[in-house]
Amino acid sequence: NAYLLGYRISDRGDPEAIATVMNFYDGYISKLCLRKLYDEHGNVCMVVDADLKNRVQTAFLDMILNFEIQ
Fold first, then answer.
1. Which value, to the nearest 10 degrees, does the dihedral of the CA atoms of residues 47, 44, 35, 51 take?
2. 0.90 surpassed by pTM
3. C-alpha count within 13 angstroms, C-beta hemisphere, residue 52
């Protein structure tokens, strides 16, 4: 069993603990996935790239589930 942010993540994965860890990092992941978009007047808008965020969350979840302490 591994502990991440004080939450026990068992071999099969505790859904509640995983959701808590994912929610903890959600803002940080969103910040990493910001992209510049330009409107019709040339103004810059920063938006979260949903596809990139989904890929980052999937990779993070994979790392959580495959994490081993040696």
1. 50
2. no
3. 10
Tokens at residue 36, please?
A: 């510049």
Query: Amino acid letter at 5?
Result: L
Query: Is residue 31's pLDDT more than 90?
Result: yes
- HEC string of 26-52 equals HHHHHHHCEEEEECCCCCEEEEECHHH
What's the pLDDT at 1? 47
C-alpha to C-alpha distance for 55 and 21, rounded to whole angstroms: 17
pLDDT tens for each residue of 40-61: 999 999 999 999 999 999 999 9
CA pair distance 35, 66, nearest whole angstrom: 29
- Measured CA angle at 29 (ends 25, 32), to 5 deg: 145
